[in-house]
Design a protein that fits this description.
single chain; about 425 residues; mainly alpha; about 70% helix; globular
Length: about 425
C-alpha cells in the first residue's frame, strides 16, 4: 500500500513539476524572438538542471527498488533501438557535450514513463492525469490573475505555469479528452466527484481558449472525428461501413474547397506562413537532406551560437529554438532512421490497441487511440515527439509500455485457452469418451 502511494505521488509530482518548471525557477520568457536566448542556450540553466536531476534520480531509484529490470523490455524493440540510437549519436554529434546532456534528460523522461507504464493500468493513469490537470490548470489561472508578468506571455496570452502558451493549450486539450473518457466510463459514481470533474472539464476549455494556441484545436477535432468514425464503424450493422468509401472522399474534397476559398492558415487563426513555420520547415528539410541517416546529434541542432541552425537565424532573424515539427526535429537529431523507429513504435501501439479493443471492449483503450492521433497531429506544428523533459514523451512511453504489458497478458491468456481446449479435445477423442 505504501509503495503504491509513493508511486502515485511521484508520478503526479513529476508530471506537474516538468510542466511548471519554467515558472517554478523563474525562467519564463519575457520577450519573444530574442537572439540572446538561443545563442546562449548551450549553457543551460543551473536551477532547472538541478531540479530535473533530482526528479530523474528519484525515478531511477523507485524503478530499481520496485520494478524487475527485465520488465523494461516492455518498452518494445522500436523504442529501445531509438533510445540506443540517440545515445550513439554522441559519437557523431556536432556538439557531443550538448548531446550528452540532452540524452541524459531523455533517459530520465523515459524512466518516468516506463515506471508509470509498469505500475499503473489505464484507469489508474487517467485518474492520476486528472490530478495533474487540476493542479496545473487551477494554478495557471491563479498565476494569470495574481502574477500577470509570469502567467501571461508578452502578447498577453495565458501561459500560466507553463513555459509557453502552446504547451498550456496542448496540455489542456489532452486533459479535456482524458476527462471526457473518465466521465463516460463512469469511474466515479458519487455526485460531488462528478461535479468537480465537470468543473475541471470547463476549466480545460477555458484555458485552451485563453492560451489562443491554434495547433491543439484542429488536433482535437481530427482526433474526435476519427474516433467517432472508428466507433460508428464498430457499432454499425454494415451500412455505415458500406457508405464510408463515399463519406471520406467527400469530406476530403470539402476540406480542400474550404482551404482553396479561405487560406488554410487563416482557418486556424494563423497568417499565411503559419507564424513563420513554413520557412523553418523548408530549412529543416534541406538540412536533413545533408545528413539524412545520422542527423547532427540528439538535441543540438538549435543549441548555442555555433549550432547548425545559426545560418537560419542570421538570414531570417527568426530566433526559433526548434523546428516546430516533432518529426522534422527528430530527423535533424538522429536522421531518417530515428523517424522510422518512432513511426514503428506508433504503428505497433495502434495495432496492439486495436487487437485488445476487439477482445476487451474497454473504453479506456479509446483514450490510447485518441492520444496517438493527437500526438501525431499536434507534432506537425510543435515538438512533442521524442524530447527530454517533455510530459508528452512521458505519456507516449507510458502508453507503449502499458499496452505491451496488457498485450502480453492477453496473449498469455489466449495460449492458456488454446491449451485447455486442446486438452479437452484430446480427452473427448478417446475410445471411452461418452
Amino acid at each position: 500500500m505504501m509503495a503504491g502511494r509513493i508511486a502515485r505521488a511521484y508520478v503526479v509530482l513529476a508530471l506537474s513539476t516538468l510542466c511548471a518548471l519554467g515558472y517554478l525557477v523563474g525562467a519564463q520568457e519575457q520577450q519573444l524572438n530574442v537572439a540572446s536566448l538561443v545563442l546562449t542556450s548551450g549553457k543551460g540553466d543551473q536551477a532547472q538542471q538541478t531540479a530535473l536531476l533530482v526528479i530523474y534520480a528519484v525515478g531511477a531509484v523507485l524503478l530499481l527498488l520496485q520494478v524487475p529490470l527485465r520488465r523494461l523490455l516492455f518498452l518494445g524493440l522500436p523504442l529501445l533501438l531509438l533510445l540506443a540510437w540517440c545515445m550513439a549519436s554522441i559519437t557523431w554529434s556536432v556538439n557531443p557535450d550538448g548531446t550528452l546532456r540532452r540524452v541524459a534528460a531523455l533517459l530520465g523522461t523515459v524512466i518516468i514513463g516506463a515506471y508509470a507504464g509498469i505500475r499503473f493500468d489505464l484507469r489508474e493513469m487517467i485518474r492520476l492525469l486528472t490530478y495533474v490537470a487540476a493542479i496545473l490548470l487551477i494554478g495557471s489561472l491563479m498565476v494569470g490573475l495574481l502574477d500577470p508578468r509570469a502567467g501571461l506571455d508578452p502578447e498577453t496570452r495565458l501561459r500560466g505555469v507553463f513555459h509557453h502558451k502552446n504547451s498550456l493549450g496542448s496540455f489542456s486539450a489532452i486533459a479535456l479528452f482524458t476527462l471526457f473518457i473518465r466521465l463516460i466510463i463512469r469511474m466515479d459514481q458519487d455526485t460531488p466527484t462528478r461535479m468537480m470533474l465537470g468543473v475541471l472539464f470547463v476549466l480545460c476549455i477555458f484555458c485552451l481558449a485563453l492560451s489562443q494556441s491554434a495547433g491543439p484545436v484542429p488536433s482535437l477535432l481530427v482526433m474526435s472525428l476519427v474516433l467517432w468514425v472508428i466507433r460508428a464503424s464498430q457499432m454499425s450493422d454494415g451500412r455505415f461501413r458500406a457508405v464510408l468509401p463515399l463519406v471520406v472522399p467527400a469530406a476530403a474534397m470539402s476540406t480542400a474547397v474550404l482551404i482553396a476559398v479561405v487560406p488554410g492558415a487563416a482557418v486556424f487563426g494563423r497568417d499565411s506562413d503559419l507564424s513563420g513555420r513554413t520557412d523553418i520547415w523548408q530549412f529543416a528539410a534541406m538540412m536533413i537532406g545533408q545528413q539524412p541517416w545520422t542527423g547532427y546529434g540528439f538535441g543540438v541542432f538549435w543549441l548555442g551560437a555555433n549550432a547548425p541552425a545559426a545560418p537560419f537565424w542570421k538570414a531570417t532573424y527568426n530566433f526559433v529554438p526548434n523546428a516546430h515539427n516533432g518529426f522534422l526535429e527528430l530527423g535533424l537529431d538522429v536522421g531518417l532512421f530515428g523517424i522510422a523507429l518512432l513511426a514503428a513504435a506508433l504503428i505497433g501501439l495502434w495495432v496492439k490497441t486495436g487487437r485488445l479493443l476487439r477482445h476487451s471492449r474497454d473504453v479506456c483503450l479509446y483514450w490510447v487511440w485518441g492520444f496517438i492521433l493527437f500526438f501525431c497531429f499536434v507534432n506537425l506544428g510543435e515538438v512533442y515527439g521524442w524530447a527530454g523533459n517533455s510530459p508528452f514523451t512521458i505519456l507516449f512511453v507510458y502508453l507503449v509500455v502499458r499496452i505491451n504489458v496488457e498485450y502480453a497478458g492477453y496473449r498469455a491468456r489466449a495460449r492458456s485457452r488454446r491449451a485447455s481446449n486442446a486438452e479437452l479435445g484430446a480427452v473427448g477423442s478417446g475410445s471411452f469418451a461418452s
